[in-house]
Write a structure and sequence with these properties.
The chain has helices at residues 3-18, 22-26, 44-57, 59-76. It is mostly helical. The chain has one domain. Helix 1 crosses helix 3 (44-57) and helix 1 (3-18) runs antiparallel to helix 4. The protein is elongated. Belongs to the YOS1 family. This is Immediate Early response 3-interacting protein 1-like. One of its GO terms (cellular component) is Golgi membrane. It is found in: Membrane.
């Protein structure tokens, strides 16, 4: 396992967090952003929820990183 494989794994994890829908997936399980305000944001669940929302906010850079990964894979074989 090299550094490139580790970076690809992190990119796949970021992609999986970016496609989670709050209305259909997160809210029915009690993971909506409205439930966590103030002190609750410092809890582990609040930190994970913040990570999910950060990856959803940065979708355009994720698209660019995915394109870069695809180009590198096509060139390197």
């Amino acid at each position: 396992m090299g550094l490139w494989t580790l970076l690809e794994g992190c990119l796949l994890l970021a992609n999986s967090l970016a496609i989670l829908n709050e209305d259909r997936f997160l809210a029915p399980r009690g993971w909506s952003f409205q439930e966590f305000s103030g002190v609750k944001r410092n809890s582990f669940k609040g930190q994970i929820l913040g990570l999910i929302y950060a990856t959803q906010y940065l979708r355009v850079p994720l698209i660019l990183l995915n394109l870069l990964c695809i180009v590198v894979k096509l060139v390197s074989g």
